[in-house]
Amino acid sequence: MNRFFGPRSFNIALFWQFFASYFILFLIPVIIASTFTYVFVVKLIEQEAENSNNITIRNFSTQTDTAFSSLQANMINLLGTSNLKSAMKLFEEPVKDPDYYEITHYLMDQLNTLDTGDIISNAYFYFAKYDLVIGFNTETSKENFFQYFYPVSDQEKQEYLDNFSGKKMMHFTKPYTLHQKILFTNDIVSSSSSISAVMSYPFNSDHPDVYLIVNMKLGELSKHIRIQEKWVAGTAIVDVTGNVITRAGESIVNPQKLLDAARSHSEGALYSDDQLQALSYVKSRFNDAWYYVSLIDLETLLKPAHRIRMFNLVFLGFFLVLGGLVSYYLSKRLYKPILEIKSGLTSHLRKSVVPVQQKGNDYDFIKQFSKLLISENKELSELVSGMSPIVQEDFIAKMLSGEYRDNLSIELYAREIDFVYERNVARTVLCIEIQYYSWVLEQISETSKTFMMVELKERILKSASGTVWLCQTKPDMLACVVQHSLFLHMGPKEVSEVVSLILQQFNPYFKAAIGVGKKVHDIGELYLSYDSALAMLQHKSLHSRVEILSEENAWEDRTQLDSFLSSDEVNRIFNIYKSRNYAKLLKSVFDLLDMAVVKNASAYQVKGLCSDVLNTWIRAVETERKDLNIPFYYSLFEKLNRCATWDEIKQCFEHIHTIMFPLVEPSDRSAQFAEILDYIHQHYGEELSVEKFAQQLNMSVSHFSRTFKETVGEKYVEYITKHRLMMSKRYLLETDMTIDVISEKVGYLGRTSFIRTFCKYEGITPGKYRTIHHQ
């Protein structure tokens, strides 16, 4: 058996060639013919079922519409001839007289004349404005009626009573449960499902006086709409809102499925979105909002088609097996050459390798496949070798961040990426922070920074080979894990000094600081050493030299510097600003920086102090200047934070000082105020508010008034007043205008204020002034 079906028995390629020919020439036509037959039969069965179902559902819809139309006509006739208006006048009387009982029995008789048929159980009048219900053989209060004579289920009672409001014209309630009780007791004998048709009277009133309710048995109504075909799983009457009026059969109509069918299919057509059921519908002629729906059991309907499909599958399976046996026999007979060579390579084949296309005979194919294996293995090996340093550096970064702390997990991950390390070795982490100078950042590209970082790594690894691991944890941070080696006499101190010498070669481009962490003996605690190294970097200074910061020398020659300005210093800056001595503002900052240099303050302390100074400057400038915004201030703080040395911070403050406190040349100020004076001379009769000119020059009102007096020589108000008086005297002497006209023309709102001002400056009234000079 093994020899017959073993790998040496036949050539699989030849087998598939023969089988493919057999499949194309013989099986495909058979499959097409079988599929066509099956589809044709299914289509024929579905079409016949659709026609039969269409006829049946239209018949029962016509019958049901006729029954409901007849019921509606009877209800309208009953309400129209029942003399309800006369009855309600008697109901309003406080005492029940014989006429009351006579009209009540008359209404009962009218209800008994209603053609009940086989689906109607009873009917009654529900008076909306009176506590009265009249049935076939009873007249009682609403509470007694629904408790003893017509006991609706407690859970559905309120929803049922809600139907007796507003105008109703043949309104059908939702199905509800009706109990049958022994009269005047609460003993339930049986329960049944019912549905009611409600009609109000007067017919067109939104607040009707009485409702006629006709109750129907759901069981009898379901029998009325049942279709007896085996493949019909159920029938139902459904409205457009998805409410099922009544149904027959065990299957439940899906309202959404019905609405989809109504939108996409015509009446009578079968609609299905699954393989189990289909439905067809006919719109009611009695109520436009109703659909008569029939559910089709596709499995029952298509049983003949399923038998045909099973026969086709057996038929195809037989020919498939026959074709396989024939192809196997032919391939076995024709397979001869190079069997030994191919068998020797079969054990080396891997599914993950994509084979080349066969060219020539099988021998050529085997040679090509062997070359492909060798080439792909070589490429894979080179790829893994190139990726290994990157993966290992990422692994070190995760240990430093604390993501890997468990020794067992670290050992397993290290084994997967071929990361070799000794477990019982003390280690210390060095954090090398790189801060490019401002002028370098403006010129250097990200690519150049990347190449510079790669060169730095290579020099460190070459100088401290075998004792350090390197990884870049942040764009400006390089972590160096030092393994303590007694044999090589290399520890964190020695490696720090070597790295410091290397960093000095890059000093023209960036300022560097080395933070030395604490020693740890467990590889899972490397993150602790890394955190302590980062903490050491907080003590770096603003000197341009490379700094080594450890617990031994981090606080060396350092004194405490307050990173915030005192309230007195803040007030002093505000006073200097108000005095317009801007040069003194810059000098005060330089004095603070010189004091920080003497105290050898850390960069963290100095930048905190400088940020407070800058914030005070901004608060002072904001009182007068409106052209500076939040993004601009943010850029100033960002520029300050990028400073790496004392010189950069001083240059930064010089730049900020130039922007925030520009010096206004006297010639420029004179030109500005000359334009303002010219405007005053042209528009002296209008309102000339000081706020308008202050805003025009981007000054506060006090600053404008002070600058106006310095430039013009007079206060703003005095100057305008004198010019107006000069023009008024000209009008007094050269024209015949009245005092009122002149006062308005020179900008005064009234005669009184003009005369008062004229007397204050001239000593006499305007009229006296005109009289004296006209003599």
Features:
flat, disordered N terminus, 29 helices, 4 domains, single chain, about 775 residues, 7-stranded antiparallel sheet, Alpha-Beta Plaits, about 55% helix, about 15% strand, alpha+beta, 5-stranded mixed sheet
Describe the structure.
By secondary structure, this protein is of the alpha+beta class. The strands form 3 sheets. Strands 1, 2, 3, 4, 5, 6 and 7 form a 7-stranded antiparallel sheet that branches. Helix 15 crosses helix 16, helix 18 crosses helix 20 (603-622) and helix 19 packs antiparallel against helix 22 (646-660). Residues 1-8 and 350-354 have low confidence and may be disordered. It has 4 domains: 63-299, no CATH class; 421-549, Reverse transcriptase/Diguanylate cyclase domain (Alpha-Beta Plaits, 2-Layer Sandwich); 567-660, no CATH class; 666-774, Arc Repressor Mutant, subunit A, CATH 1.10.10.
